[in-house]
Amino acid sequence: MENETRVLLEEIWKSVQTVAEGHGSIMSKLEDHDKKFEGMGQEIKLVKEVVGDTNTILKNLENKVDGIDQELKAVGSAVLETNVDVKEIKKGMENHEQRITKLEEKVHI
What we know:
Blueprint: H1 2-108
């Protein structure tokens, strides 16, 4: 019986060794995965920072575009006002030209 017990214990010991070796291998792989996940976490953090910086740049650009748009609207209004003023000046000049022509006709008569 002692012999059978010893054989059984040896078989159990071999099984325990196999399980222990597998456990060690699994733990090593888990540690490798943890390191990879930490690296990925740092990369994700960096991507978030870059995205945040990009959003800030885009908001600043949008503000500048809005400012340019407002300035262009102001310039457009000023051009329209100037156009109206020029038309009025032209009308006034036509009246002056007609008066000058009449005066010249009277002087030459």
